[in-house]
Amino acid sequence: MIRLKIRDHNDLFQGQEYIEQFERKREFEKGPSDEEIRRVAEWTKTEEYKEKNFARQHIKINPAKACQPLGAVFCASGFEGTMPFVQGAQGCVAYFRSHLNRHFKEPFAAISTSMTEDAAVFGGLNNMLEGLENAYALYKPKMIAVSTTCMAEVIGDDLNAFIKQAKEKGLIPKDLPVPFAHTPSFVGSYITGYDNMMKGILSGITAGKKGEPNSRTTNKINFIPGFDTYTGDYFELKRLMNMMGVKHTVLADVSNVFDSPNTGKHTLYPGGTPLADAMDSINADATIALQKYSTFKTMEYVGKEWSQKTAVLTPIGIKNTDRFFDEISKITGKPVPQEIEDERGRAVDAMIDSHPYVHGKRFALVGDPDMLMGLVSFLMEMGGIPVHIVCTMGDKKFTEDLNALLSESPFGAEAKVYTGKDMWHLRSLLFTEPVDLLIGNSYAKFLWRDTETPLIRIGFPLFDRHHLHRYPVIGYQGTINLVSSVVNTVLDEMDRKTINTTSFDVIR
Amino acid sequence: MSTAIKDTQKMIEEVLEAYPEKTKKDRAKHLAANDPTGQCSTCQVKSNMKSRPGVMTVRGCAYAGAKGVVWGPVKDQVTISHGPVGCGQYSWWSRRNYYNGQTGVDTFGTMHITTDFQERDIVYGGDKNLHAALHELKGLFPLAKSMGILSECPVGLIGDDIEAVSKTASKELDIPIVPVRCEGFRGVSQSLGHHIANDTIRDYILGKGELDKSTPYDVAIIGDYNIGGDAWASRKMLEELGLRVIAQWTGDASINEMGIAHKAKLNLVHCYRSMNYICRHMEETYGTPWVEFNFFGPTKIYQSIRKIASYFDDRIKENAEKMIEKYKPVMDKIVEAYKPRLEGKKVMLYVGGLRPRHTIGAYEDLGMEVIASGYEFGHNDDYKRTYPDMKEGAVIMDDATLYEMEEFTRRLRPDMVGSGIKEKYSYHKMGVPFRQMHSWDYSGPYHGFDGFPVFARDMDMTVNSPTWDLIRRKR
């Protein structure tokens, strides 16, 4: 082993030589004086600044939001042998891939049709035809799921007609499933894109399959997890349903796609819902979505076109998970087994043990609508007080739903819901009305730095911590994981704050 | 033609077999066996051409070049991603262009600021909103030195006039506003975005900064984005050499520095690909000469220090020799420690527009050999600079696809691969040691005397990690 002390950026630039270098550089920067910077920095913490900040209508600053096609490619990747294929400019796909790579620390394959200026003028037909031909030849997919970037949407490419042509010209086999969805980036967000792609895939591949249940799918339940970026949730859902003896199909099962075993071999399609099961999902007894706001159109479609029982159940926290199992039990007629009841008991036990450190703590939350609904419910069960709830992707319906939930508990009385707002708004709130804890994605660490509100990393994307997505947040086991993240963040913070006091306790 | 070249050509032909005819013909132009002498006519790759649809190119877009490389790192400019929300989100603080300053107060580098286009903006145009947004931003960030508008795809497609909005708002707000037409569909890669961004520096900022006094030793660092602090490590060396760095483009750059680089006695260009345009402009308009340099690894560093010093007086030249004398033992110690662990290891590189050639020397300093290299968005002049630095028969690849990279890896069996985040985890699954050579895998700096020890340490931990041996390999 090499014992040289190598200094990298983490300590190198703290050295005196560099501090002096930075000071010398200021001569050329002509920046404001230290005093001016201090003055403005303090001003950004004021009520006056908050009002100015909240008056803004035309610009987002640090939003917790990304665009439709990201959700579409994420959804598409959850089907067996499926290549997500995006009609539009290539930079978008490079971005979707890197974004998902960074969160999951996993490879992610998706294809673009590399549209450029000429496609802007003449339309993207040629790109689509050549793209399908190449993608099929090189990557041998069992299904190609097409979505769009804003470029293709602005110029008005007709996906249906283009795909038909590709098949007529023999560029791809006639029987290759090529479902599609229009996913303009200037409408909604990635939860909308997930919904559109899911509906596109399901309507595309189940067409004509009604009434032909094969033996493996009778008495089956479909689960649609939604834009859930916790791979642990998928494994957990399947484990729980197997324990209950419920036959099921998880539609867009991304678990193995974003958490594939290392075997020394890279496979393009490491998992996904078997296509035969997905095609037969139309014949299941019921379809249950685990998220509401990322499955609106899909669930409406399933309810209407498939004539199945449908339900939306987000099993985050105790009450939500209870409701989840009650409903599943009702739909399938299968009792909830004792093992699951035991898991419930353990989760409740964990919450009781930790409640003194969470009770009365005030929280700010920022994230996706479904996750926020689940987390707020969970926090109130623990005696936590949600105060600022920021949902950039939220809409009016979400505000109503969340306000209804908050009104169910005295712990919800202080909360205010901010839809369409961003993390720069939240920064103001954290200065003018400080809270004890912050829940958000990795970008919320800038809020932690500015306001010193301890951050619990829950949501998407999580770039700066490893493996968090492997731990489920759903079910009773997920609830234990949530308790653990919350309480141990409180305790870590307590240690930091009491490090030089008598309160530096070893037993807590 | 040598057997080394013939063997590689045969391998390339085999790999190309999988493509449909038209794409095969196209891709054949972008893959070649290296001929360092430049005599073999079939050994030159074509570059800076459109990617084929459907082949999983690694490339990004013009916006990525303008935001992620040239304008994004400029710290005291409020830079707006103008269009739908995604582009700015996916490029948010992902390139680690370090800077000093108080974010949100006098600097704005780690912020994601976007007009978040909605359907109404597509239908009615986004200009009015943009104009209002500029006013709001000026109100919230009074210490900003400039505002930049980076156009995303729809802006150009719907025919918005961001130049007019900029002009009006700039007058109203008394602040420079830089409209950048870097819509993602323009050009074939990030590269055009660099060029467009260079042109906007020329048109809106260059020549407008203040420099209190000039000295005969003034230089500017051009094309160093301070990833993991690279530019700082380079600056330290140039200052020790006796030079005065008046501007850093664009890592840790201020708008004032962007306005005074033409006053340098010499522009020092690290990333030629992304900033040669503005250097040529400064040379033609202001007579500022420029020279390329390479601060990766001791061999290239010594050469570069001497080359840079040759433009100055004897004092600087003597300083160069003194520095080499001072740091050589330090560098030798690093080489002595790491070379035995890395000697003979084969490296495959596929990076952006500079590092596929610039890092070769650093690998060689450690006894490693680069057996394949390629650029995402290089041009002919980049490849011309690369051929002589690589061995005969090495693979040269332009705009390589995931399929090609995997096939070359299978056949060439490199001991490590250096490329980007999109490739990283595929290689982890393959059990091939991998290092991100865009972001330094969140490490760095890699430039200069302070950077090389970090580079050596990182390559060692990559190649020699015991984790690779844990894989139970499927055949």
Features of this protein?
heterodimer, A: 508 residues, alpha/beta, 5-stranded parallel β-sheet, 4-stranded parallel β-sheet, 21 helices, 13 strands, 48% helix, globular, B: 475 residues, 6-stranded mixed β-sheet, 14 strands, 45% helix
Question: Care to describe what's here?
Answer:
The complex is a heterodimer of chains A (508) and B (475). Chain A has 508 residues and is an alpha/beta fold. In chain A, 48% of the residues lie in helices and 11% in strands. Chain A has a five-stranded parallel beta sheet, sandwiched between helices. Chain A has a four-stranded parallel beta sheet with strand order 6-5-7-8, with helices on both faces. In chain A, strands 3-2-4 form a three-stranded parallel beta sheet, with helices on both faces. The model of chain A has no long low-confidence stretch (mean pLDDT 97). Chain B is an alpha/beta fold. Helices cover 45% and strands 14% of the residues of chain B. Chain B contains 20 helices and 14 strands. In chain B, α12 links the parallel β8 and β9. The two termini of chain B are 36 Å apart. The model of chain B has no long low-confidence stretch (mean pLDDT 97). The interface between A and B is large, with 104 and 129 residues.
